């Protein structure tokens, strides 16, 4: 191998030129560390706020009096969180979004039907 600076012939495995000290084989940079998600990111999708909020709204929609509002909010946020997880797979949160959609939709509609029934029979008499 010839030195690009002074033209001196060097052994192929020399790091520097024996004549001028020019570096012959630049050291390649170390490969970048691969960042992996922690288990916590899978358990709690903190990067997907709508999915996490939908989960809690869906779970707490079982509480009477506030269940209808939380259920509807959980349903809407679950749909947003599911769309966010589909567009950006690294944020995770599909299961949390589905829990918000199913539980929020079920309890929201159940309380809506219960309220409509009570109002109907209350007005009749």
Keywords:
125 residues; mainly alpha; 2 domains; 55% helix; rod-shaped
Description:
This protein is mostly helical and 125 residues long. 55% of the residues lie in helices and 0% in strands. It folds into two domains: 27 residues; 81 residues, no CATH class. Helix 2 packs antiparallel against helix 3, helix 2 packs parallel to helix 4 and helix 3 packs antiparallel against helix 4. The protein starts with 38 loop residues before the first helix and ends with a helix. The relative contact order is 0.14.
Could you provide a short overview of the structure?
It contains four helices and no strands. By secondary structure, the chain is mostly helical.
Largest sheet: none
Instruction: Flag low-confidence runs.
Output: none
Termini gap: 103 Å
Helix content: 55-70%
User: How many strands?
Assistant: 0
- The shape is rod-shaped
- What class, by secondary structure content? mainly alpha
